[in-house]
Amino acid sequence: MPLPPPVLDHVVIDVRDRLDAAAEIFASLGFRLTPRGRHTLGSANHLAVFATDYLELLGSGGDGAIRPELQSFPIGLNGLVFKTADADAVYRHASAAGLPIQPVQSFSRPVEIDGCHYDARFRTARLDQDRIAIGRVYFCEHLTPELVWRAPWQAHPNGARQISRVAIATPDPRRTAALFAALFGAGALHEADGICTLQAGPARVELTPPDRLRAEFGEAAAAASGRATYLAALELQVAAIAHTAEALRTVPGISTEPGRVIVPAAAACNTTLIFTV
Questions:
Q1: How big, in percent rounded to 5, are the helix, strand and coil portions of the chain?
Q2: Closest by alpha carbon to 270, among 54, 34, 81, 12?
Q3: Is the pTM of this model over 0.70?
């Protein structure tokens, strides 16, 4: 039996040793970021938390050391993470399906709320990034979701409310989609006009030929950095496009189109950002 229908948990933008600069960039783009968190794994992060998902800026913990599994990735959108209520069940299913799944990993990071200290705790089931085309795809079991989704962190000056689209550039969408079919069942995928789509809760994950993304975004497209398949763009739903356009009007290279605003990858850590209603 396949896993339950997919729901996006979060996406990860790797920034390596530039976490301070990345936090400044995303704050200037109108995201309200959480205070810096430090994982027991050795990395550090800031989150932009939305209604049911979030964007994570992930970098070194301050000593310059990069987690080994992050060293092979360039700066940019490199992590696609689904929700799970049982990381062990994901491991068992993926193992039975012959997928390259790694042992379940447990970790935490301290969180301070109203002067009190807590530990946000997680369990993850990660596919072997060296054996799948996309890169880092994994499942996150939140043991303390109340320490992540908090109302004060969900109000963003740019109006962002929810991730609505994650675009993955791949020269062979159908072949790349086979991973998701093995996880969630072939019925979870829809193919039309050369694009394979996986609906993951409110968000859709699109597997698209790179030339299609370059045609859509032009100079705003993310750099492939030598990769054939890579996470390229992130679309976010906003409350009012006019408000978002005004909040972002000074961003270099910004493009305002009917119904959407595009921030070029060069202005957002090699991640094209699209804001839509």
A1: 25, 40, 35
A2: 12
A3: yes
